[in-house]
DNA sequence: TCTCACGCTCTCCTTTTGGTGAGTACAAAT
DNA sequence: ATTTGTACTCACCAAAAGGAGAGCGTGAGA
């Protein structure tokens, strides 16, 4: 069983790798895709694109490739014309989604707190000369 | 108690704000600083810099300001010469650290899996040609 | 007097990120 | 023959991220 926060008792090498991995998966588009595929199950390229709404083809392709490389999604190519490609999460992808769940919940619960903090921080600027 | 994955039952507006907030806090340096302050308690600027090891002054200052604005850290300035400034987590910062804990654990536990997946993905490239 | 330490801030530079728009291959529909 | 739809790929460009190094203010110590 792991400690409350793992990096405290890990090797520095492992820590570095973990940081690297975190840096890769804690990406805006990755998290979005993770969430959507978790919800919808299996989607085609354009369906995914529409579900996200604002992503460019380039970023979608790129992020999906990275996720595939990291073993988070499975890409199924149906050899038909016009092309049909479907994406779904692997178990690893699902487990990452579950791990991020706590962060989603935190964000939802503390949205107002953060906004208040920002107003407090930004507000008292014009303390006129 | 919230649902397994919150965004499914949230307003689209809230969802957008959550995405925005996630995009801000799911930052490499933010996560690092969060973790270190959680471990060490209260640190000075240069102590923090040394603890992270690779961060530039610019990024450290910038990230700390963002975190302060978002109510994640408290910045205490001691009016002495040379200057002394200490940083520590707020309760909100600690709760975010706790939320990210699941992601750290995931990264630690699945490091090898991801590396294997990458090798499998990268390996079979030179298939003739 | 000169240097050092600290916590910045500023400028300059390179790298990375991300968007736009075009092109591709091919079969079915028009 | 032309258009349509799909899932890309590529070239080009703008913006942002991020690093290196200089400067600042000032009191203690050499």
From TrEMBL, chains A, B:
User: Molecular function terms in GO for this entry?
Assistant: DNA binding
Query: Domain of life here?
Result: Bacteria
| Entry-linked SUPFAM superfamilies | Winged helix' DNA-binding domain (SSF46785)
> What stretches pass through the bilayer?
none
Note the Pfam families from the entry.
HxlR
The record's section on PANTHER family has: TRANSCRIPTIONAL REGULATOR, MARR FAMILY, TRANSCRIPTIONAL REGULATORY PROTEIN
Q: Please report the name of this protein according to its UniProt entry.
A: HTH-type transcriptional activator HxlR
Q: Which organism is it from?
A: Methylobacterium bullatum
Lineage, uppermost ranks: Bacteria, Pseudomonadati, Pseudomonadota, Alphaproteobacteria, Hyphomicrobiales
The UniProt gene name for this protein comes to hxlR
């Amino acid at each position: 069983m792991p400690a409350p926060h793992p990096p405290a008792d890990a090797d520095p090498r492992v820590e570095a790798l973990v940081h690297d991995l975190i840096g890769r998966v804690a990406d805006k588009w990755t998290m979005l895709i993770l969430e959507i595929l978790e919800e919808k199950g299996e989607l085609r390229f354009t369906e995914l694109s529409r579900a996200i709404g604002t992503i460019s083809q380039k970023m979608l392709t790129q992020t999906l490739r990275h996720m595939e490389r990291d073993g988070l999604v499975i890409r199924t190519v149906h050899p038909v014309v016009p092309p049909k490609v479907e994406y779904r999460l692997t178990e690893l992808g699902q487990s990452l989604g579950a791990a991020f769940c706590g962060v989603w919940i935190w964000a939802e619960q503390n949205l107002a707190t953060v906004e208040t903090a920002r107003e407090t921080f930004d507000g008292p600027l014009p303390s006129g000369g």
